[in-house]
Amino acid sequence: MANQQSLSGLTKLGDLRKRLLFLLGALIVFRIGAHIPVPGVDAIALAKLYESASSGILGILNIFSGGSLERFSIFAIGIMPYISASIIVQLASEILPSLKALKKEGEAGRKIITKYTRYGTVLLAILQSFGVATFVYQQNIVVVAQLEFYISTVVCLVTGTMFLMWLGEQMTERGVGNGISLIITAGIAAGIPSGIAQLLTLISQGSMSMLTAISIVLGALLLVYVVVYFESAQRKIPIHYAKRQLGHRVVHGQNTHMPFKLNMAGVIPPIFASSIILFPSTLLSWFGSGDIDSWLHKVSGLLQHGQPIYILLFATSIIFFCYFYTALVFSPKEMAENLKKSGAFVPGIRPGGQTSRYLEKVVLRLTFFGALYITIICLIPEFLTTALNVPFYLGGTSLLIIVVVTMDFSTQIASYRMTQQYEHLIKQPDMKSLSRK
């Protein structure tokens, strides 16, 4: 009997180990792909080009792609086309009646919406890869014929994005946590060692004082602490279950609570906001780079990192997506109906419509403070980069993504282990009864 229990426990631990190993293997594949270059480009000239523009839009895109843009690898445009397509489809599903009806069809409707998202990803990836090819070709660093370069670049970059999309889905299904978020986090984390090395180089060359460097490190650690504190903050709404009968057993009233996180939208708003701003600004900068006096070049300059219009659009987009995504994932009316069906109610609030309005009020208030917190966290490094004259990109969005996804990943592992323990406890009495028989 004891041997059977220990064998079951080892099997459960083995399942978690397999998921973690698959996750590690997928991330290794992602990092290998980030070093496979697209053919036809002079690598030395590309490195010099990136070095001269690493603090602008290229620097931000390079962080999200895990350094792939700097090397012009097959993952140069990263997973951003998929995120942009997801935004467009989710917005359309709130506007178009046909997509609204699909959302209500359950799993079958979700599969169709996922298919539309993939089609949108292919279209956006083609447009973005064509823009990348145009920009790179205009820099006179291409060593092959123009047609050959355009075809190979578009094919490689679109294939790389679709592979990352598939890899993220596999990581979600066969690993632990959200695969797309983990890919973005892994790409950002891969740039931390080079950022530290660049900081040390600036200190050794005298371009940055030791006090400024220490201030940057301490500020980053302080921001990490603030993010962890606010991500752990909850509003607990008391819930009371009335006395009810389950079969032949009477269950007395119970008091519990319903937790609501301060940041219910997670890292989705800053990712969506970055994608929405970076996609058009990148295309404008690429297509307008040939003529300095063109209106495309002027508009792209206004949308560059650190510019007032960029900061204003970025903050507005974060707040919008905080409310939008929270409205997508949370339905006060549905939650109030579920509480009413289970015989639960909020003390002092009538079940039904009044409970729904109360929950909606609580969520809107939390979303306001959550959006304010995310916006401040994402904008503080923007102002510090300008104030301290830092020659490389410091992103509050990157820091927020790393901390939040890491916290979510550890929570997922803890929940997975807890579920396994519960399954083991449930099966244990059944095994005892079988042994008696």
Structure characterization notes:
With 437 residues, the chain is mainly α. The protein is built from 17 helices and five strands. The strands form two sheets. The chain has a three-stranded antiparallel β-sheet with strand order 4-1-5. Strands 2-3 form a two-stranded antiparallel sheet. It is globular and about 80 Å long.
Number of helices in the DSSP assignment = 17
One letter per element, helices H and strands E, the order comes to: HHHHHHHHHHHEEEEHHHHEHH
Helix content: over 70%
* Widest sheet: strand ordering: 4-1-5
Structural class: mainly alpha
Number of β-strand runs: 5
Q: How would you sum up the major sheet?
A: 3 strands, antiparallel
Q: Approximately what portion of the residues adopt beta-strand conformation?
A: 5-15%
- Radius of gyration, whole Å: 25 Å
pLDDT below 50 for ≥5 consecutive residues: which ranges?
1-11
Distance between the termini: 13 Å
Mean pLDDT over all positions: 78
- Overall shape: it is globular
List the helices and strands and how they pair.
Blueprint: H1 2-33, H2 43-52, H3 57-64, H4 68-71, H5 80-95, H6 97-103, H7 107-138, H8 146-174, H9 179-190, H10 192-205, H11 210-231, E1 234-241, E2 244-246, E3 249-251, E4 254-261, H12 268-287, H13 295-302, H14 308-329, H15 332-341, E5 344-345, H16 353-387, H17 396-436
Antiparallel strand pairs: 1-4, 1-5, 2-3
Helix pairs in contact: 1-8, 1-17, 5-6, 5-7, 5-12, 6-7, 7-8, 7-12, 8-9, 9-17, 11-17, 12-13, 12-14, 14-16, 15-16, 16-17
